[in-house]
Structure formats: structure tokens, C-alpha cells
Amino acid sequence: MLNPETEFGLKFSSPARLDNARLRSMASVPSISANILTPYPGTYLFDRLLREGRILHTNWSFYDHTTVCYQPKHMGPEELAERYMDFRRRFFSFSSILKRGLPQLRVAPLIYVGMNLAYRKTTRLLESHYREYFNWLRKNKPAPAPVAIPAPAPS
């Protein structure tokens, strides 16, 4: 069974691009691992976002592929999180699971149903996670530790 991955928050992600195109392109996919771009320390992405002042905090417990830990370029962190959640709510809705599931019932029905129901439950749990996270972010507004990271030398 195919289980592709899609990443939210890439540099070319804008509100208009995230709306329906991603869901339409996944209409026949049995399931999906949908993640939010996570900039890890020691990576080029983290260093670049830190230089640009776009790392929101360094509370590593939130660097989990589902929490927005940086300032996206074309929208706010809460908007990216809401669009991510909207995708998950629609993709893992009962009607979507049923529509996508008809071809899968002949291949691996228990795996298909189990995976989609697990992702559906995780989506519901993420709603309370986001409420708590954005409340924490508003209260703490932690600044990233000042780190001097040189820009990469031109090749």
C-alpha cells in the first residue's frame, strides 16, 4: 500500500497554493503522512532561518514535524498550522476515507482503515496541542539564543 508524504511550510508555500490543490492531488491516495517543515539545529535550513530571524524559539520539545517552530515566509505560523489542520480534517474525514477506500478494500482493508482512523484521531489530538502551543508561544515569546552563524561561502 502506498503511503506518500507531503510537507507543509516549504519556502514556496503560500495561502493560495495550500488551499485545494494539495487535497485534489491526493484524491486517490490511500493514506498520507502530512508534516510541517521542521528546521533542526545543525542543518542548513535551521542556520538560514536563524540568520533571517525566523526561528520562533528553541524549545526542542516542539520540534516534532507537526508544530510550526519558525516564521513562514508568506503567512503567519498560526495560519500555516490552521491550513495544515484543515488539510488533515478534510483528508481524514469519514467521507474522504470512504471515497478513497473503495479501491483499497480489495488490497489491504484492515491496514487502510486502521491507518486512516489513527490519523483521524491524531488530527483531533493536534487541535488541543495547537491551542496549548500558541497560548504558550504568546505568553513566553522566547527569543532564540543569539548565535553567530556565518553565511555559506559562495561556490
Architecture blueprint of SSEs:
Layout: E1 5-8, H1 15-18, H2 21-25, E2 33-36, H3 44-51, H4 77-91, H5 94-101, H6 109-140
Parallel strand pairs: 1-2
Précis, in short:
With 155 residues, the chain is mostly helical. It is 46% helix and 5% strand.
Q: What is the makeup of the main sheet? A: 2 strands, parallel
SSE succession: EHHEHHHH
Q: How many strands appear in the DSSP assignment?
A: 2
Helix share, percent: 40-55%
Supply the helix-strand structural class. Answer: mainly alpha
Number of domains: 1
Distance between the termini: 42 Å
Beta fraction of the residues? 5-15%
Counting DSSP H or I runs of 4 or more residues, the number of helices is 6
Strand order within the widest beta sheet: 1-2
Unreliable segments (pLDDT under 50, ≥5 consecutive)?
Answer: none
Radius of gyration (Å): 18 Å
Mean pLDDT: 81
Shape: elongated
Description:
With 155 residues, the chain is mainly α. The chain has one domain (5-140). Helix content is 46%, strand content 5%. It is built from 6 helices and 2 strands, in the order βααβαααα. It has helices at 15-18, 21-25, 44-51, 77-91, 94-101, 109-140; strands at 5-8, 33-36. The protein has a two-stranded parallel ribbon. The longest helix is centred in the C-terminal third of the chain and has 32 residues, at 109-140. The protein is elongated, with a radius of gyration of 18 Å.
